[in-house]
Amino acid sequence: VGTSCVLTCPPKSNTTMVTWKINPKAGGPCTLGYRADQNKTDSTNCSGSTNWRFRPDWDPALQIQQVGRAHEGNYTCEVVATEGNFHKTYHLTVLVPPRLTLYCDDHGNPVCEAAAGKPAAQISWVPESNSTPEEEGHDKGTVTVLSKFTAHSTDMTNTTCIVSHPAGNQSKSIAC
Predict the structure, then answer these.
(1) pTM here?
(2) DSSP-assigned states of every residue in 100-123
(3) pLDDT-derived band of residue 68, with 50, 70 and 90 as boundaries?
């Protein structure tokens, strides 16, 4: 989320035509086209954030600016060249890093929350805890995971919550 994404297309010499067919999960389909004989590009129903990376006669790659969950979906590049037709399809999944919060509850137990991540984050503790995380799904496809530290002994001074996620790992420590 929020970064730029480049999807490459098979570059071929003597390209006649390049077409990107975009079918996002949200919103309608869009098409970007380039015809070499007329050196002309065309765009149908595409937002300003989705466009050619450079000039399509040099590089047929697609660039998505400020990637959001609405960009998830299928992206297919079709290249027509003298040596044949070539296709490449991407299935774009957008990762949303969770917001990490660590606090002490009313009983002095550390509570770790990984809020609104996609996919759901994994929570672990140092020292180890046998707590069972609770998950709450949201309508935008994100998940909040909550884990309460259960101590094996009462002389704990510092605990660390470790949140593992494909978009990056995070950790915080607290003494309750």
Answers:
(1) 0.75
(2) EEEEE-TTS-EEEEEEEEBS--EE
(3) confident
- Would you list the domain boundaries of the chain? 5-92, 99-174
Q: Which two tokens stand for residue 158?
A: 């510092």
99-174 homologous superfamily: Immunoglobulins (2.60.40.10)
Number of helical (H) and strand (E) elements in the chain, helices listed first: 0, 15
Residue 59: closest CA among 4, 3, 7: 7
Structure confidence by residue, pLDDT tens digits, 80-98? 999 999 999 999 999 999 9
CATH class entry, domain 5-92: mainly beta
Do 5-92 and 99-174 share a fold?
yes
